[in-house]
Amino acid sequence: MTDNAHNSHLPINPDTVPSFETMTNVATMDTSHVNKDTPPFILVDGSYYLFRTYHALPKMMTTTGQHTNAIRGTLNALLKLMRRYHPTHMAVCFDTRAPTFRHQLSADYKASRPPMDIELSQQIPYLHRLVTALGIPLLRIEGAEADDIIGTLAYRAVAEGHHVVISTGDKDMAQLVNDCVILEDSFTGKITDSQGVVDKFGINPEQMIDFLTLMGDSSDGIKGVPGIGKKTAQDLLNKYGTIDNILQNLADVKGRGAKSLAEHAGDIPLNAQLATIVTDLDIGQDWSDLQLNTDPCAHVDELRALYSELEFKNELASLDHPNHPANGQGSKGVAASQAATEAQAQIEKSLQSTKIDNIKNSKNHDKAWHTILDMPAFDSLIEQLENSAHFVIDTETTSVHWRQAELVGLSFATQAHEAYYIPLAHSLEGDALTTKQLDRDTILSRLKPILENPNIGKIGQHLKYDAHILSRYDIDLLGSIHDKPNNWAMDTMLASYVINAAITRHGMDDLARHYLQTQTISFEDVAGKGAKQVSFDQVAIDIASDYACEDADITYQLFKIFNQKLANDDNNQKLLHELEIPTAEILCQMEAEGILIKRPFLNELSKRFDEEIIVLEQRAYEVAGEEFNLASPKQLGEMLFDKLGVIGGKKTKTGQYSTGEAVLSKIDHPLVDIVLEYRSLAKLKNTYTDALDNVADPITNRVHTSYHQALTSTGRLSSTDPNLQNIPIRTATGRLIRQAFIAPEGRVILAADYSQIELRLMAHFSGDENLTRAFNEGLDIHTATAAEVLGKTVEEVTPTERRNAKAINFGLLYGMSAFGLAKQLQMSRGEAQDYINMYFNRYPSVKEYMINTRASAYDKGYVETILGRKLYTPDINNSNRMVKQAAERAAINAPLQGSAADIIKLAMIAVDKVLPKAQAKMLLQVHDELVFEVDADKAADISKLIKNAMQEVLSTTAVASGWQVDFAVPLLVETDIGSNWDEAH
DNA sequence: GCATCATCTTA
DNA sequence: GTAAGATGATGCG
Q: What residue stretches are annotated with the 5'-3' exonuclease domain (predicted)?
């Protein structure tokens, strides 16, 4: 049933492609002759990008009112493809308005499509000119659709020995996929190869036409067979292969599908014709014309004219950049894919760091940016702020480290394209404006009531930082989260993070580039870089003012965009305002509070470690027969495996010997024992005892970490300067470090941690009966697992069996493979696989969870946490198998780790609300644990309070914020109290 | 001076 | 097998 649509209305001329048969199906072509080492032939479905970007991107307009979002979106897709593949052959194909043979075949064909918006149709001529100016062949054929042109070219390209990338998001194109033809959606980043088609549609590419024929396509007006949907079509094709075969075996076919098939068999040929992409069009074009014009000068004038007419400023600037794809990118000839990847990385890097050469010129004088240098101007700003529902505030300081930063100036914005900068402490010698600066204390005391007014919303980029700075000047931007209706109206960094945590950078410059297509003035532009960088108070006030005003202006514009996005997404709105922003306020308090450390004790430890290290070094030199750097893996590897002739040396990817703990501990050699002990002590001394002493406040002896709230891909926090989330606990010596974390006189350390929270989440998400029961009965989960899998009672489980079960339980959370488990348990891969099979046999729903999660990541491109946070999985369709598999494991882990992160953030909010602040302070968060210092005589009561708040959080705080979670197992919190963190844990 | 690698610490 | 950050060594400019 894969007859090709062959119609006299089509411009078909068999003479142009004489060697090809008319029965041409790309998916079944012989591809043995195709050379994959050359760049692929790129076929772009221009119509797809036109529609997709028009509807998906925010409206953009030139000053003359010309809409440009589809032009820009499509252009970006083209540039991305050129940078990625460095193609020598490429074509962009568009539909025409003329009816096609499909319209003549069926009155319903695409009949339900509304007419094109004028704002879109206006953009088409520009786009055509742009494609041509980029030197890319443009194909439009009356009576044919872009799909048919692409089908024809794909067929021809493969016949000629090219491999092909079809750039589209149209699922119908899946019928063209084979092992040399893939689909790539440059808008979503999704790549679909043969396996991808199987994963997505449950059938092979060569069955795609039959699949569409059976199922129909309502958006195209193809009816399909009534009563046969996706699932039935899949089942039938998997069983019978083709429609022909299904019809021949109609008697065997079960269910209501059979009857419908018999009744509508007559419609099948028509539907098939409509669904089949033509592969033998007369494209009326010389094959040799489909090469990119790689002459950099050929069209540059036209390109310049277009960019300037469309007001594409960055593109215009990049035309003069040597890495613009239009600048002869293909002239270097065939690039191997490795080189292409490197080249692309370089281009991305250089594009990101494209600098504005002259700061003064960068100021856009349409914008009303003001420097406040006199009291009347300041009075008028005050009035404006007082009468605003919300405004942007941004602080400029002498340092990025909040602990040591001094306030240099403040900027404000109450609407887009207007901003104010109040310089307060600039001190550049020779800058005449410095003497005109207003008095800092006067200004701050006037601003204080406004900044502390909970009814005026504050907007900012990374407001936690500004809140820290202002608190140093006795201004409480935080308010308190219990009774503030409108404080901290928006943090644009957190908004971006809630919308997509997979983005690695949420800095203002990155957001401006991404959401506003604006290259902001970078800090390096105004303050220099490297050793020559000066602090902001040394920047001239007029330059500083532009920079600061732009920050406030951009933040306001981002606020508008995010507000719009969040208005359409109730859950993201809640995640931002009910979860992330309240968490940020609490983190701010925790960071400011800090935790007390016992400095003399740490110094004593340092000294002790140092003495032992010196002894170990000497012994190592004796064993080795010469001195070498024990801390150098390279020198150690050479010493051990080359000079001393120890066998069992493995190499790392860079070719040097691997000397990790896992390798060394298998080797029986005196030097190895020395090295392992040396490393352990050196680690503790360098990373912990010395480092903590260095960063502790010299007066209060408290350590203040910084929590990063918009960094991880799962929603977890991270901790830096110092990292207090990886303080040792496993070894006795390591725990000495923990003993240095103490509470002041009269107080104790209280630690409260969620027990097995991720496994409980696995029980919840999978609904697995056995797992749920174990938690509901309060069993030791690893023992229970071992007993279940081995068919024993819990009393019969041996320590080794429990250990293996624990490894498999952790493996589950990490998206386990037999390979990984085998490595962990030091057994063969087969044994590990047997173990996994036994496990899944007893926990079938857990297996299902893993399958379903993978499938959901493929289908939707994201997975979700318990509070509905969307965690995107961009690499899930990566063409590199290793990358793809890693993305699958991450997708399985993300809902578990991310939900645990959601829950502990809720817990922090819940606890903060009930904690008696005079008697207790929340100090640290370590993923599933909260650490407090509390009055010793109140510790028992407060402990109960905290435990209760944490355990009940899903039925209290979550519900109050509008999340309904019916959790399958109890949340268990274990608390303990001690004079130091080690005792409390 | 800066980036990358190998190693080791945590949940 | 997931998610992080800090350190010293090494190599490049």
A: 38-293
Cα separation of A33 and A36, whole Å? 9
Instruction: Give the CATH architecture of domain A711-761+895-985.
Output: 2-Layer Sandwich (3.30)
DSSP reduced 3-state for A342: helix
pLDDT at A729 over 90: yes
CATH annotation of A359-594: 3.30.420.10
A718 pairs with which residues across the strands? A708
Domain boundaries, chain A: 34-201+278-288, 359-594, 596-703, 711-761+895-985, 769-842
As a residue count, chain A comes to 985
CA A718 / C1′ B4 distance in Å: 22
Residues sharing a CB contact under 8 Å with residue A368, sequence separation 6 or more, in sequence order: A417, A418, A419
DSSP E strands in A857-914: the ranges are 862-864, 870-872
The predicted pLDDT at position A788 comes to 96
CA distance A797 to A777: 17
Nearest 5°: the CA angle A227, A233, A238 is 150
Q: Which nucleotide is nearest to A810 (CA to C1')?
A: C1
Longest dimension (CA), chain A: 96
Closest amino acid to nucleotide B10 (CA–C1'): A726
User: Per the structure block, which two tokens stand in for A39?
Assistant: 């760049």
Residue type, A929: E
For A361-376, write each residue's pLDDT tens digit: 344 556 799 999 999 9
The protein residue nearest nucleotide B2, judged by CA to C1', is A530
Residues 693-752 of A with CB under 7 A from strand B: 725-731, 734
Nucleotides on strand B lying under 7 Å from protein C-beta: 1-2, 5-11
DSSP annotation string for A439-489: PHHHHHHHHHHHHT-TTSEEEESSHHHHHHHHHHTT--SS--TTS-SSSS-
Secondary-structure class of domain A596-703 per CATH: mainly alpha
Q: Which residue has the higher pLDDT, A86 or A892?
A: A892
Q: Which nucleotides of C are covered by protein (CB under 7 A)?
A: 1-11
List the structure tokens of A402. 């909040």
